[in-house]
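ok so for the tutorial part 2 we go from a plain amino acid sequence to predicted structure tokens. step 1 is just haveing the sequence, like this:
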Amino acid sequence: MPNLRWQPVATLLLSIFGLGVSVYLTITHFDKVALVCASNGTINCEKVTTSPQSVIFGIPVAMLGLVFFVPMIVLCLPAAWRSSDRRIHLARLVLSITGVGMIVYLIIAELFIIKAICLWCSSVHLITFILFVIIVTASPIVLAPDHGLALADGDDAYDAG
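step 2 — the prediction. this is what the tokens look like for a chain of 161 residues:
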């Protein structure tokens, strides 16, 4: 059975970093003075974070980042990766797919509607995409029918070697 060596740690670190950026963007959504970003035309965080597209159904997009990254941190804990419960792995996969769907919308909004790019937002987009790639490529391993059996037999599917 293939081993997951670096994926649990990488996804956890990416999720923590994504949460940090989302917290910062949430703070700056409510306190515009706190936003640190260039505003030279194309790169303009303030234009992006104050646009009508920065709120969906009355919820700031930055807060949606919190709603994404908090459960993603829990689902990316090494214990969650080791779990034989397929629902945990499916939840991680579904959440990552949902996250990528959201960033596709947000990138389209930045490029074609707002016509400006926020570097902070782009870092969240990149983190979400990398999480998606890692999770999707690891899913055949963790969703394999024998994943839980191998762990029960004492195989170490997560050795760091």
